[in-house]
Amino acid sequence: MQGGTPPSARDRHRPFRCETSPAPSDDRASHIARRCSRDSPIVFGFGFSVDAREPVLKVVQSLRVKLATTPPEFAQAALDLAALIAAQNRDSELADAVAAVAVERFVLTQDVDRLLPTAAVILECAAARTDRTEALSMLARRLENLAFVAPAAVLPEALDIFRILQSINAELAGLLGRSIATSRLGLHRVAVA
Q1: 27-41, 50-64, 126-140: segment of lowest average pLDDT
Q2: Cβ–Cβ under 8 Å, residues 150 and 186
Q3: How far apart are CA 175 and CA 137, in angstroms?
Q4: DSSP 8-state assignment for residue 150
Q5: Which long-range contacts (CB under 8 A, 24 or more apart) does 64-67 make?
Q6: 8-15 long-range CB contacts below 8 Å, 24 or more apart?
Q7: Measuring CA to CA, which of 13, 24, 62, 162 is 20 to 30 A from 112?
């Protein structure tokens, strides 16, 4: 190494901690989303310290307040990373907050390109639950909620997502009946109108 001492084994294996001090021109949520989106592979590879949970929860709560003004790519990066952290740390409270913000963001923007990323965040947040039955039940309820608030233009894609999930997991297949029914009902109303 140039001009320094090699890192100790302890330093090399510490969990990643997301930098939280914003640049003078950034608001806190934008800065953290930008920083964490760049460092997401590090978090995936090395984990995220459980004691850093509170700052992550604060970022998610801040994002909820500033959904309309946060750039879409930063908001998605922050939600993706927070969902990953919740799943890796088995933090159901953080997962609930992240999934709620993801759905709220989808409702606020009504952007047809956000359905799959929103469903992916919901799916990853379900992995934070340690009880598999509870996780599948929560996943089904959140996907039903997503189908209920989705604009008609994305309901065919929502049905595709639900059918793919049904084909992957037999336990989840039965629980997705209401999500599929909600999507079909929305499609039927559009066809009649």
Answers
A1: 27-41
A2: yes
A3: 7
A4: S
A5: 64/97, 64/100, 64/101, 64/104, 66/27, 66/29, 67/101, 67/104, 67/105, 67/108
A6: 13/46, 14/49, 15/46, 15/47, 15/48, 15/49, 15/52
A7: 62
Determine which helix (DSSP H) or strand (DSSP E) holds 167, and give its type and residue range. Answer: helix 155-168
* 36-40, 51-55, 130-134: least confident range: 36-40
CA distance 172 to 157: 18
Overall pTM surpassing 0.85 (yes/no): no
Structure tokens given for 29? 């949520």
How confident is the model over 22-46, as pLDDT tens digits? 444 445 555 555 555 555 555 556 5
Mean pLDDT computed over 129-154: 92
- What is the CA 163 to chain-centroid distance, rounded? 20
CA distance 43 to 53: 13
Q: Please compute Rg for the chain using Cα positions.
A: 19
